[in-house]
Amino acid sequence: MPTQLPWHQIDTVLLDMDGTLIDLHFDSHLWQQLVPERYAERLELPLAEAKARIDTCYHAVSGTLDWYCVDYWSQTLGLDIRALKQEILEKIQWRPNAIPFLTELRAAGKQLVLFTNAHPASLSVKEARLGLASHLDLMVSTHELGWSKESQYCWQALAERLAFDPARTLFVDDSERILQAAADFGIGYQLAIQNPDSQQRPQQIIRFPAIHDYAELLPLSR
């Protein structure tokens, strides 16, 4: 799909964090490798069995706030997730050309809002590492709203908190399911990220315009 956007019709840009502004590799490594390894060590299990048990736990709460909750997983798995994150801070990296993209959006007068399902503890770790707030007007974790972005209740809660016109808003995310939730709410424009994890193969996006690199959108005035 083409990636040209009618910027003159867009006042607000809502941006996901993990896989959208930040390389998803940090989270992929944490949840798919480090957590299973430490869980296997704690219970003295073969790694394959540990992964199978954890995957069952993951699927049980997929799409809910618990799936994104550091405290939930610390309690469920008996691991200090906050401490594990501190071991791999070097993996927290911007996606290519994210900063130039944000810089141009700000220069064009767009309202820039980070809108993430990440737990506030996860958000604070990444903010401390990258200085996210300096590039944005506001950062909102769905944990503050009580629902994940998959739910229409979450979008309703955001509309009560944030002054924006959904029809003149662009939402950027790496999940088609969440992009569809935004469209269902009435967000005017959606943009998908094809390669949220730099270490994995790109995903196939069917329903929405998609990009590999923000450079594809620059300059905004072209």
UniProtKB/TrEMBL annotation:
Originating species: Aeromonas molluscorum 848
Record's keyword terms, sorted: Hydrolase
What domain of life does the native source organism fall in? Bacteria
GO molecular function terms here?
A: phosphoglycolate phosphatase activity
Identification of the protein by name: Hydrolase
Q: Which Pfam families match?
A: Hydrolase (PF00702)
Q: Which GO terms describe its cellular component?
A: cytosol
GO process terms (BP): DNA repair
Q: Which PANTHER family match?
A: GMP_IMP NUCLEOTIDASE YRFG, PHOSPHOGLYCOLATE PHOSPHATASE
Starting at the broadest rank, the lineage of the source organism is:
Bacteria, Pseudomonadati, Pseudomonadota, Gammaproteobacteria, Aeromonadales
